Amino acid sequence: MSRPKQSDTDSRPTHTIEDYLMTMHVMERDSGKIVAARLAEMMGVTPATVTMTLRRMQRDEWISGHRRREIHLTELGREAARSVTRRHMLTEWLLVKIFKFPIFETHDEAHRIEHAISPKLEERMYEILGKPELCPHGNPLPGNEALTKDWVSLVDIPVGAEVIIRRVHEFAEDNQELLAFLGEKKIAPEKKALIKENLPFNQTLTIEIGDGIVTLGFAAAKHIFVEIIKS
Ligand SMILES: [Zn+2]
Ligand SMILES: [Zn+2]
Question: Which ligand is nearest to the Cα of residue 170, counting in written order?
Fold first, then answer.
């Protein structure tokens, strides 16, 4: 059997660096750039810690020419970022499909497991889990970004529209209280909802979902992306 082309687990970055790389992948995917200032907030560490980690990442050639504001992944860094993102998402599916975890309780477990998965196991997981294009939260596995481009943030949906929830963005995943709330209210991909109220001056919107009425602040709602079925 030929060797898998992905780097071996031994030549991978550390867990911490992999987690930075995954966040960088998401930032670059969404906005085309990686802003150092936002990393501290996303990673839940101080700016000084971020600066130190970025210096290490530059030394090890995961990123290049790190100037103050904007960060660029090297070829090597980008491949490593895509690799850990894939492993994270496949692990989420493993937890949901095989181990029956509720979809909003996969985050911590996935972070424990994802770093240990070899390229060979990743390949097997991908096959057995049915070659998924999206994670259980509707975020694209690297290479499948086009699938999500027509979904609109819930914040921008007018009153009266019927929608199908398609995606809860990765950046919601670090907020445990928000995830618990979404889980409790059963706000998840594939669920239908009706927009009852959208109040920009109040930064809230209200949706009917299942048998319930739920009010969300824009700060939470901006992470939820939907497909309009009737406007
Ligand atoms: Zn992790
Ligand atoms: Zn996910």
Answer: 2
Separation of 17 CA from ligand 1 center, angstroms? 9
**Nearest ligand to residue 108 Cα:** 1
Q: Domain 1-136 is in which class?
A: mainly alpha
The full set of domain ranges for the chain reads 1-136, 152-230
Distance (angstroms) between ligand 2 centre and the Cα of 82 equals 14
Query: What is the whole-number distance in angstroms between the Cα of residue 92 and the centre of ligand 1?
Result: 12
Instruction: Please determine, for residue 110, whether its predicted confidence score (pLDDT) is greater than 90.
Output: yes
Residue 58 tokens, joined: 């530059």
The average pLDDT across 193-210 equals 96
Name the nearest CA neighbour of 62 among 90, 34, 37, 88.
34
Beta carbons within 10 angstroms of residue 79's beta carbon: 16
Residue 62: strand, helix, or coil: coil
Reply yes or no on whether the pLDDT at 9 is more than 70.
no
Provide the 10 A C-beta neighbour count for residue 1: 4
Question: Which ligand is closest in space to the CA of residue 22?
Answer: 1
Model confidence pLDDT, tens digit, residues 113-160: 999 999 999 999 999 999 999 999 999 999 999 999 999 999 999 999
CATH number of 152-230: 2.30.30.90
Centroid of ligand 2 to alpha carbon of 65 (angstroms)? 30
